[in-house]
Design goal:
Layout: E1 20-28, H1 34-50, E2 53-62, H2 74-87, E3 91-94, H3 100-110, E4 114-116, H4 117-128, H5 132-146, H6 150-161, H7 165-205, E5 212-217, H8 223-231, E6 248-253, E7 259-264, H9 274-279, H10 281-288, E8 292-298, H11 304-318, E9 325-330, H12 339-347, E10 352-354, H13 363-376, E11 378-385, H14 390-399, E12 401-407, E13 413-420, H15 421-431, E14 436-437
Parallel strand pairs: 1-2, 1-3, 3-4, 5-7, 5-8, 8-9, 9-10
Antiparallel strand pairs: 6-7, 11-13, 11-14, 12-13
Helix pairs in contact: 1-4, 4-5, 5-7, 6-7, 7-10, 14-15
Length: 439
């Protein structure tokens, strides 16, 4: 179906000369959803731009159901073929995922490379993966996407070479070889990712004592900008989709002087490919390990409520729906009037903070909110520690907030601490001594 070389994104989303012209296609199954479809196609245009294409025309067909053979009706396929020829379009991009057979049938008529939202997203991820982990995750997802489409790719190759009985046999032999090689590579990548997951799990166990906060949200919501504003992390922050793929972890200083770990994760999007979510599992598991999730939302976007829903769907798929969550409505500086703030306060009376990461507005309120969650499961205790329990004293300074320090006439240390039950148990276990609370 796909000539992959023609869909390889160029650096910074462009070719050396210009963006490549392409046509976007969407299907409307409910006339009441036309505005939503247009917004989806706007997003598809941004994805295409990131992948090096410029959408020069949109085609929308209203149908009662999807055509199993070509997704859209045969007449509309012919119309797109003529339009692609007239506009010199180099590709046709569908907003919904096509089956391998649909892609092959469409290319038979359109005579241009045909891809879909999933293919474009996978190619963007491939162009932006930097670490070995991210590259492995993306390669696995792409190969799983390509494998069922290899037949179409080799049919395309055979037509270019002129066909014929001998070429048909050659193509089938090469197809079988490619399938075997692709399946073998998929198996290798799965083994590599399993090792990566084990290593990541080991690293997470080493951070069990830390309070962890994870940034999640729709792509381009401003998570990396917020991360930089809070921690001076120096994370790449671009006004482009999927600017960040690799998880970044930094120490966040709270107003109380306590420290927590803040993690920036890959952004989500509508119709995020299932294979991509599965492949990025070791990265996204940072969310499952978090004590608190900050859901960052670009409130200046007209479809922000749909973005919230899409993010919640991915979190549910990951099994992270029950995590304590704070809604962080970003880019409030781009909104006019108080109406948005009032509505947000009504929708999320107990779990929302309004910020502008670029200007710093609201960041103090956000830090105070994280502080409240951090302290929510802690309790204040008075402890008496013997001179022989110096290890426990040192550990308490690491795991708890020491509010007061005093000494009695017997040389014992009296500490007033704010600590979780989990940390108190770990301090006692690692110190090898029972801790003596003062009534």
């Amino acid at each position: 179906m796909l000539d992959q070389a023609k869909f390889t994104p160029q650096p910074n989303g462009t070719t050396p000369n210009a963006l490549r012209p392409a046509i976007a296609v969407g299907v409307l199954l409910d006339s009441r959803e036309r505005a939503a479809l247009e917004e989806h196609l706007d997003e598809l245009a941004l994805l295409a731009d990131t992948a090096g294409f410029e959408i020069v025309a949109r085609v929308v067909q209203e149908r009662k159901s999807i055509d199993p053979a070509t997704f859209i009706g045969s007449g509309k396929v012919e119309e797109i073929a003529a339009l692609a020829e007239a506009l010199n379009a180099e590709a046709v991009i569908f907003d919904d995922e096509l089956s391998p057979a649909q892609g092959r049938n469409l290319e038979e008529v359109i005579k241009k490379p045909v891809t879909d939202r999933t293919g474009i997203i996978l190619d963007i991820f491939a162009s932006r993966a930097r670490t070995k982990e991210a590259r492995t995750q993306v390669e696995l997802a792409r190969l799983q996407y390509i494998l069922p489409r290899l037949t179409g790719m080799w049919s395309h190759f055979t037509r270019q070479r002129g066909g014929g009985a001998n070429m048909r046999g050659e193509g089938e032999t090469q197809l079988e070889m490619d399938r075997r090689m692709t399946k073998a590579r998929i198996a290798d990548l799965r083994r590599e990712l399993e090792e990566i997951r084990k290593q990541a799990e080991t690293r997470r166990k080493g951070r069990e004592e830390a309070y962890k906060v994870s940034l999640v949200g729709y792509t381009n919501a401003g998570k990396s900008t917020l991360m930089n504003a809070l921690t001076e992390a120096g994370v790449l922050a671009e006004n482009r989709l999927f600017a960040t793929l690799d998880a970044t972890m930094r120490t966040l200083d709270l107003p109380s002087g306590d420290h927590v770990l803040l993690t920036d994760t890959v952004g989500f999007i509508r119709k995020l490919p299932t294979n991509l979510v599965a492949s990025f599992r070791s990265t996204l598991d940072e969310i499952l390990d978090a004590n608190l999730v900050l859901h960052v939302v670009d409130v200046s976007h007209q479809a922000w409520e749909e973005h919230v829903h899409a993010t919640h769907e991915v979190l549910a798929e990951l099994g992270a729906s029950d995590k304590p969550m704070v809604m962080v409505f970003n880019k409030i500086d781009m909104m006019d009037g108080p109406g948005t703030r009032t509505r947000l306060a009504e929708l999320y009376p107990d779990s929302a903070v309004v910020v502008a990461a670029k200007t710093g507005e609201g960041l103090d309120d956000l830090l105070k909110t994280v502080q409240r969650h951090f302290e929510g499961d802690r309790r204040t205790l008075q402890l008496r520690l013997l001179p022989s329990q110096q290890k426990a004293i040192a550990l308490l300074h690491q795991r708890a907030r020491v509010l007061e320090t005093d000494y009695d006439g017997d040389g014992n240390t009296l500490l007033k601490v704010l600590i979780t039950a989990k940390d108190l148990g770990q301090v006692a276990a690692e110190a090898g001594h029972a801790l003596d609370p003062i009534a």
